[in-house]
Every structure is written in C-alpha cells, then in structure tokens.
Amino acid sequence: MLAIFDSQSVPSPPELQSPASFRLPTVKPKLPREIINHFVTSGACGALSMSFGNAASIAFDPSRSHSAHHQMLFCGLDEMYCMFKGSLNNLSRLNKQYGLSKATNEAMFVIEAYRTLRDRGPYPADQVLKELEGNFAFVVFDRKAGTVFAALDAREGMNLYWGTAGDGSLVISDNLEVIKVGCAKSFAPFPPGCMFHSERGLMSFEHPTKKMKAMPRIDSEGVMCGANFKVDVQSRVHTMPRVGSEANWATWGSHP
Description:
Radius of gyration: 18 Å
Largest sheet: 6 strands, antiparallel
Number of helices: 7
Mean pLDDT: 86
Low-confidence stretches: 243-256
Strand content: 25-35%
Helix content: 10-25%
Structural class: alpha+beta
Strand order of the largest sheet: 2-3-1-9-8-10
Shape: globular
Number of strands: 14
C-alpha cells in the first residue's frame, strides 16, 4: 500500500527530512507522481491508484490481498478510504460491539469505527486502538474532512514506513523499496504502537501520557536520514487524545 498527501493539507514531520536531500544530487527524493508510477509499475500487473486532485494519491496492489503472511485490504465508503494490512483476532467481537454485520472485514471496520468516533464517539483514541487485537497497519484518508489517520500495532510484527517526497508531501507505505526510491534518505520506520493524525501529529497509543521524541538516524554510508521516533519515558503530557465530532479532531488532546 502507498499513500501520499500534499504538504499544504498534511504537513510531513520536519524530522523526516534528511539534510542530504539539499546537498547531495544523488539522493534527491522524487515527486509524488513519480513515486506512484514506480509503485504501480514495479508491482504485479493490476496495481490500482487513485488521485484526489492535488490533495492526495493512494495506490494498492490487489494481488497482495491474500498474502501468505499478511492480508492486504482496501475499502472506500462515503469518501473515506482505508488501506489495511494484517488481521484483527477479535474482529467478530468488534463488529458486534459496533453493530456491524459479520461480513465486515478489517478495512470496513476501521472506516466504520473512525466514522463513529469522529462524529459522536466519547472515547480517547488510544483506548480505541488498544481494543484492536492482532497485527495491523492502516491508513485512513477522510476526503471530506481533508484529514489522515494512520496507526501501527505495538507487536512489531508489521512494517510501515513514512517519509518526505521531493515537494514536501508526506509518504506512507509498507513497501521499503518504494519508500527508499521515492524519499531517498528522507524516511524512517513508522514507530510501533503509535498513531498519526494530520491535525495533531504523532502520538503513542501504548503510552498516551508520554511524548514522542525524534532520534537522529545515520545509515551505513554515514548519511543523516529521517529521524526515528521513540517514546520519551521521562516526559509526561497532561491531556489525552480524544476523537469525537469533526470539531473535536481539532481538540485531539482534550481530556478531562
């Protein structure tokens, strides 16, 4: 899976930008269209891509939807789009909890849970994600709201990466080769047990009372790359992430 979001609507964390991108012509990140084309042409025949004007582009390879290791799912509903990798062991219970049909798969569930929480849910976002049992990585693009919500489970059995394209766009993918080609040195692994919302940034849902800290990362060639993010165990935040109405997304940190 691959998702690219314009920097005007979804700012890429500045810590992902490698200084080498400004100095070394051999490590220049590519533009979004070039990254999408590389993903589509380098995969199996039949890879799909969708563009939403200049705001976003997503791509998905249906041939990997039933991988021997992790299933890949895509779902679009009411201008909300989800790419999901992995599986939820407690999907049946979650579907029942949210009043969804037994045929609802993981990508459908994430969209419905996101919609419920966005519109009227009183629960903190970390609590919602902690209820998901299994290995998973997902990216949700809410076209109407112009927002992005992404998360990676804490088990470290799944890989997800993010980086910065040549025009500053945010790139998220499970494909390391695509990320390396598209973002050059301006990328890093997405931190396990964390969630990213385009309006509130990166947070740990495993340790919601702790702040995230960027750690410098140098590769085997001695080049400074995009930073790794780790939980700062010495820190403490006084608010908890909450999801609710669209207005409440802007007050992600409000919690009594």
